[in-house]
Write a structure and sequence with these properties.
Keywords: Acyltransferase, Transferase. This protein is an alpha+beta fold. It is built from five helices and seven strands, in the order βαααβββαβαββ. The relative contact order is 0.16.
Length: 168
């Protein structure tokens, strides 16, 4: 069964924050620590900011904020918009799935919808992922992304991110 993937609405903000909290703790606690994860979620995933991001994405043709559901239960989300410095490139800002649903095709369905929605607006899709996030790295590489570089993470000193891109 494939998930129902739809455009997020502001009422989805609480579910999105909950998905982020679960997936961030599962993926990133061993890498950057539980305290840093909690602080980052509290800072980056306020309901007001999420609602504003959803409204903005809905108003633009070059951005998308999606939510995936299984049996009406929110299980994942993705948020993509223009890259700050490269007009022909979309930036995959967020894509997260509840850990209990990892490996069930939710991330793949979200990524496919992102690509289908934005392929006429952009030439490439860009993202950065923590280098030690083995689940994330494996997912992106299996989805056809190519590693194009590395960069320092803003999350914690001495943490490296891999940069990936994929043609749309």
């Amino acid at each position: 069964m494939s998930p129902d993937v739809r455009c997020a609405v502001p009422d989805d903000a609480t579910a999105i924050r909950d998905i982020a909290r679960e997936s961030w703790h599962a993926a990133y606690d061993p890498i950057i620590g539980e305290e840093t994860v909690t602080e980052t979620i509290d800072r980056w995933y306020t309901l007001e900011d999420l609602e504003a991001s959803i409204v903005e994405a809905r108003a633009r043709e070059d951005a998308v904020f999606l939510i995936a559901e299984e049996a009406d239960e929110p299980v994942g989300f993705a948020h993509t918009g223009p890259h700050r410095e490269r007009p022909a490139v979309a930036s995959l800002n967020r894509i997260y799935v509840r850990p209990d649903w990892w490996g069930e095709g939710i991330g793949t369905a979200l990524l496919k919808r992102v690509q289908d929605t934005l392929h006429s607006e952009y030439d490439r899709l860009y993202l950065a992922v923590l280098a030690d996030n083995e689940v994330g790295v494996s997912f992106y590489e299996s989805a056809g992304f190519e590693r194009t570089g590395t960069q320092d993470s803003d999350l914690k000193p001495e943490v490296t991110e891999y940069v990936y891109e994929k043609p749309l």
